[in-house]
Amino acid sequence: MASGVLILAEIADGAVAPVTAELVGAAQRLGAGPVSAMVLGSGVEGAAANVLGVERTYLVDDGALAQYTTDGFARAAEAVAKQMQPAIILMAQSDIGRDLAPALAAKLGTAVAMDTIALEMKDGKLHTTRPAYGGNARAVNGFTTEPAVATVRPKALEGVEGGSAGTVEKVTADLSGIRQKVLKREVATAEGVRLEDAQVVVSGGRGLGGPEGFAQIEELAKAMGGAVGCSRAVADLGWRPVAEQVGLTGKVVSPTLYIAVAISGASQHMAGCSGSKNIVAINKDADANIFKASRFGIVGDYKQVMGPLIEAIKKEKAAG
Amino acid sequence: MHIVVCVKQVPDWDIPPSSFKVDEGSKKVVPPPGVAPVTSQFDAIAAEAAMRIKDAASDAKVTIMSMGAATAREVIKQGLAMGGDEGVLISEEGIEDIDSAGAAKVLAAAIKKLGDVDLVLTGRQAVDWDTGVTGTLIAEELGAPVITFAKAVSVADGKVTVERVLPDATETVEAPLPAVVTVSNELGEPRYPKLPQIMAAGKKQVTNFSAADLGVDASSLGKRLTLEGLFVPVVDTKVEIIAGDTPEEQAANLAKRLKEAKLI
């Protein structure tokens, strides 16, 4: 009989990824039995001992997992799932989670709910809520198969810090014949504050009219100690790097202050910023969707507003 | 070289959020009157990826495949107008309501029936459910490797090479054919067919399959994932539009309000 919750603890640069605390919190709150973690990678035994708030940490430590591949991680996770027989498996909607979760679900003959923002137990079964239709709707899903696999949107659920580390249990998996081969991997390095961690994000949209419009976005972000973001249209047009894209297919941010400049607020963009505590919109279209989600708004042309706004904010900051 | 592109017909996604409605009883989206369904955006980009491979290798044949209602013929035609050679439509009563696992089973069965497929392309996610799993599930059904989130796809020497785009990294990954690749928007805009190509697309062959034709028992396509509810979230609108006769005044007032709210 399947029971308990298994979470994927991702390891980045030898450390347990911060999103793990959110998965542990979500898993504990379900009250669906003991919470265990799995750590998959190469040379990650030390990190496995640092996953907190779980009873047990299953470890697949294998040279074949030095780099993420769908085949390698799916087979390793499958081996852990078969060993533990969990009722529920949770991972983050991260680079790894969004690729791994469906592959694992297929191997286990079960279903997966992606990018969920709420989890609850109903009659002993997992129910998930997730945005659909570009964020316009919410879908509530149930499972008829076990284990129920779900990815959780980062920053959507409250994390728990601390707790004790679980007993590490090694699991072996047959990782021969991995078919994907990573020839090259380049990590984008952001200057200054990391977008996902920034307390202030200043984002620009297609309404800026061109990449040169971002000079003022950067200036305002710098004045506020924040990071620069952009809409998908902007990244698609090549005005800004993909690493700055906020939205359904980009990054999810939840800063204290999100300033959206010349962004209409399409649902797929809101999917990435609706967790912000305060949204400020600057848009010349008074009917733009972004205003519906905003606390403060200026209806006007950014070209006329941004210069004075940068000055006014600098002045208010200087006044202390 | 035979490429299959799986395309899905979805309610038009490019509508203002205010005109988006769902019927909570039937758990279905109610499209605004007069707005026709369209090709899921990322699937059109997957078709573009196929056409670029075909442009580079003239022996490539591209089949546009869709599963859904009879109206899905329209999205197949769009792919044929972009340069696809043949179409496959899988229609079956109620088939549009099966979950991703069921859809993958049906699509994989159709791909197997075609027999000689080297590469399967899909969008990274359909723009209705935004799930992003069907490509991977098709790969598992076929026993083929999958590479997700492609911004460039090329084929040579029995291998597919994919530039993957991730929020904080780019990767180049290769896998042996046959393989499945899911395509992301960073690949670029789908080509826009001209009138003669649209006319020619109407004459291209579209083969119809039912689940039975594919040896799939439609009643066995149970739902692993059930839809328990569908609703539009309530957004609490309480925006304070900052007043001011000039942009300078608006800017100064906003800065003041941000200060009062302890946001700067």
CATH class bucket of the largest domain in chain B: Alpha Beta
Q: Assign the CATH architecture of the largest domain in chain B.
A: 3-Layer(aba) Sandwich
Radius of gyration of chain A in whole Å, from Cα?
21 Å
The coarse overall form of chain B would be globular
- Read across the widest sheet of chain B, the strand sequence of neighbours is 11-10-9-12-8-1-6-7-13
What's the mean pLDDT score of chain B? 94
Q: Kindly report the average pLDDT value of chain A.
A: 95
Structural class of chain A: alpha/beta
- Write down the oligomeric state: heterodimer
* Number of distinct beta strands of chain A: 18
Flag low-confidence runs of chain B. none
The number of helical elements of chain B comes to 6
Can you tell me the residue ranges of chain A where pLDDT is under 50 for at least 5 consecutive residues? none
Strand order of the largest sheet of chain A: 7-11-6-1-4-5-12
Q: CATH top level of the largest domain in chain A?
A: Alpha Beta
Helix content of chain A: 25-40%
Mind explaining what this structure looks like?
The complex is a heterodimer of chains A (320) and B (264). Chain A is of the alpha/beta class. Chain A has 2 domains: 5-170, Rossmann fold; 195-319, Rossmann fold. Chain A is 26% helix and 28% strand. Chain A is elongated, with a radius of gyration of 21 Å. The termini of chain A are far apart. Chain B has 6 helices and 15 strands. Chain B has a 9-stranded mixed beta sheet, with helices on both faces. A two-stranded antiparallel ribbon of chain B has the order 2-5. In chain B, strands 3-4 form a two-stranded antiparallel sheet. The N and C termini of chain B lie far apart (59 Å). In chain B, strand 3 (21-23) and strand 4 form a beta hairpin. Chain B has 2 domains: 2-220, Rossmann fold; 234-264, no CATH class. Chain B is α/β, with parallel strands linked by helices and 264 residues long. The longest helix of chain B has 16 residues, at 41-56. At the A-B interface, helix 4, strand 7, strand 9, strand 10 and strand 13 of A face helix 3, helix 4, strand 9, strand 10 and strand 11 of B. Strand 13 (181-187) of chain A pairs antiparallel with strand 11 of chain B, so a sheet runs across the interface.
